Amino acid sequence: LTHINKLHLEQPRNEILARLSIPIAPITEIGPDYLLKTWITGTRGDIWFSSWILLPLPLRLQDPAFKSLMELWDTLIKKKVYVQNMKDMNLMWEEEKGRWVVVDVGYVKEGGEEREVRGRYYETWEKRWGRGVKREKLWKMRGQKEEDVDMSVAEAVDRKRE
User: Fold this and answer.
1) In the prediction, which pLDDT does 4 show?
2) Got the DSSP string for 62-125?
3) By three-state DSSP, how is residue 109 classified?
4) How far apart are CA 132 and CA 125, in angstroms?
5) Which of 92, 86, 99 is nearest to 129 (CA)?
6) Are 38 and 28 in contact (CB under 8 A)?
7) What is d(CA 13, CA 118) in angstroms, rounded to the nearest whole number?
8) CB atoms within 10 A of CB 98
9) Bigger pLDDT: 130 or 159?
């Protein structure tokens, strides 16, 4: 949920993603102490992930929701946009439409290098999605090399936490 003192930031964040044609739950009403969005029917990301992680690896890679999630990330990476809150509980899988919908945006950063943005998403994968699938395994699963991913941001965050 968005903190009440940050409700005014939600509209501009939604507008950025809408401008980039990223599926997002539209805001229908904003009040002084509430925000109302369109109801999205689907499977919340954490529920999907708990089933997906149990599949054998070849089936995981062929899963339409996994492919769609990676396409969403690739689109954001190519457009050099990092959505900090792109975690499992903030996405809904609309199976009948074959797409993920962002239901809670969080911080949005535009610009930077593709490698840096990609590194941030891989960090997100490991910390928020990747229970049982580390970021190194994910980028290998996707046929990428270590040099394609700038992990300096993630490593700096890790050092800060120590």
Assistant:
1) 56
2) H-HHHHHHHHHHHHHHHTTEEETT-SGGGEEEETTTTEEEES----EEE-S-HHHHHHHHHHHI
3) strand
4) 11
5) 86
6) yes
7) 20
8) 11
9) 130
